[in-house]
Write a structure and sequence with these properties.
Layout lengths: L1 E8 L6 H6 L3 E3 L1 E5 L2 E5 L9 H8 L9 E3 L3 H14 E8 L7 H12 L4 E6 L5 H15 L4 H11 L3 E7 L3 H5 L17 E7 L2 E8 L2 H18 L4 E7 L2 H14 L5 E6 L2 H7 L3 E7 L9
Helix pairs in contact: 5-6, 8-9
Length: 296
Amino acid sequence: MSKITIVTAGLSELTKDLIEQYNVVTVPYRIIFGDEAFYIKNNNEVELTTEEFCEKLKTVTKDNFPRTSVPSPGDYSKAIDEAFEKSDSVIAITLTSGMSGAYQAANGVVESLYKDKDITVFDSLHTMTGVGIQALEAAKMAQNGESKEEILKKLETIRPKTRNIFAMKDLDFLEKQGRLGPIEQIRDKNPEVIPVIQTAEGILKPLTIFNNAQDLIDRMSAFAKKICEVNETDDIFLSHINNKKAADVIYKVLMDNKKESTTIHYSEACAILGAYTGPNTVSLSYVGAFESEWLN
């Protein structure tokens, strides 16, 4: 039995292979279209593929616009029980409390059912791969036999350095989810422009605007090269929804410029991201320095 097990969100974009390799337990999230609900356990085990999600968007109405749901207490307790079958100590890394009730929900379950257990709930202050990259780092440390105190200290250190950048074609999805907030200031009705946002201080904030699809490729590629210089962990995450052309170019830049020890995790994002960003998105996540000028 390992000393510590990491529990994290099913929307963290960790693949089934990574979850099995590092003994992670995920809490499934739901994406909801009207009366239909689909579970997302990880980036591979899904009840609704990203391709199916994009097809459903073609017939969506205001009555069945996609939304997401915080895991139920039963979902949390099932995941935590599974984690305690693997170890005597658990760290649950949740979606940001600034955009979701996940942190509060997880704490509620722990207070009700696991008061006598060694479990800590950690607020990632991020979403999607921003959660995943923190969970992966913690799981690697747990596998290497590092203590819970050391893992939590590392999480506190990397949390403010975790970068989660999204270039998305359509801000209407964030508006429908009630998460537009300060991003409204970079909204532009020109169909060619592509808003770029980040997760910072637990919420989504505006960064810049790309002029068109080629501008996205050029500027994100230059940014990817810079990421390879400043990245502080052995992992960089790149994902996309329905924008393989741009993502493939960015992936090549990352592969050509990464440090030898760095792994580039490249995948199609799960449908949960699409509920926030729509069907045309590129996302990059890493841990390290960041300057907004790097995207100009």
